[in-house]
Structure formats: structure tokens, C-alpha cells
Amino acid sequence: MIIHPIPPVYDENSKVLILGSFPSVKSREVCFFYGHPQNRFWKLMAVIFEDDQPETIEEKRAFLLRHNIAVWDVIKSCDITGSSDASIKNVVPNDLSIILETADIRNIYVNGKTAYKYYQKYTKPLIQRDAICLPSTSPANAAWNLERLKNEWKMIL
């Protein structure tokens, strides 16, 4: 059983909540979201918001808060082999109430089909809110180039 090591990023001004499934090995190592250099999340955010791409954890956290974005993951703990979403078992969901009670979240988005599946199964019954599934920014989602991702993800604006 691996426990999620990264605290959520949010403040009282957050309007959009983006949820992944569970942090990759690389993200767990660097102790921040979308830590794998091949993940396109940060590049995509910079393009959508027409802002500089953040590099350090401090820059990434400031970027999210500046753009009123909260980020966390659906899963609090699970059994997982490496970073393989397909291997996820024994899921315990994160309690999103700490974010939802602090911030006026207008929309909840999930980064990819795995996050959406676990959101629908575990989170939606608890909080009674729909989430919009966006295509994964993972390098494993090679069918989606940055331009295609941008066209879908710009709805978070």
C-alpha cells in the first residue's frame, strides 16, 4: 500500500480543481504533481494561460494559485506497481472536502480516463458533483499532441 505523499495545492481563491489519479513514481520522488519531465501538464498550462512555464516546485505552486487552480489526486492510497494505472488496486479516495469547504470550486476536471473512473466510483457518490474528463497529459497518451490537448483543456479557462 502506497500513501499519497503530496499535499493538495489550493487556496480560498481557487475556482477550478484538477484531479489526477495517483502520483507517478517520478512525482512521488520529487514530491510534486506531474513531476515526470515527459508529462505535458506544465507545458500545457503555460500555453493555455499564456504564461511562462514554471520549472521549480515553488514556481509551479505559485503558477497554480495565481491562476486560481487547485490540484490534487482522486486516490489517497492504493497498491500500484511502478506508475502503472492499470495495476491500481485497493483504492482509498482522498477527502476533497478540505478543498471544497475552503474554495468556491466552480468546476472539477480530471486528467485522464483512469482518474475519471476512480472519481466516478469513489468521489462522486461522496460529494455529489460531476467532473469533466479531459485527455491525459501523460506521455503514455501519445495519440494527443500538445495542440489537441490545448483545444480540449482550454475549457478550464
Q: How would you describe this structure to a colleague?
A:
The radius of gyration is 14 Å and the shape is globular. It is α/β, with parallel strands linked by helices. It is built from six helices and seven strands, in the order ββαααβββαβαβα. The chain has a four-stranded parallel sheet. It has a single domain (2-156), classed as 3-Layer(aba) Sandwich (Uracil-DNA Glycosylase, subunit E), CATH 3.40.470.
Brief synopsis:
With about 160 residues, this protein is of the alpha/beta class.
Domain unit count: 1
Extended strand count: 7
Overall shape: globular
| Spatial order of strands in the largest sheet | 3-2-6-7
Count of helix runs: 6
Q: What share of residues is helical?
A: 25-40%
- The CA-CA distance between the termini, in Å, is 36 Å
- Beta-strand level of the residues, as a percent range? 15-25%
Largest sheet: 4 strands, parallel
Q: Under the CATH scheme, which architecture would be assigned? A: 3-Layer(aba) Sandwich
Order of helices and strands: EEHHHEEEHEHEH
The level 1 CATH classification is Alpha Beta
**Class computed from helices, strands and strand pairing:** alpha/beta
CATH superfamily: Uracil-DNA glycosylase-like domain
Assembly type of the chains comes to single chain
The low-pLDDT segments are none
Radius of gyration, whole Å: 14 Å
Average pLDDT confidence is 97
CATH topology, by name, is: Uracil-DNA Glycosylase, subunit E
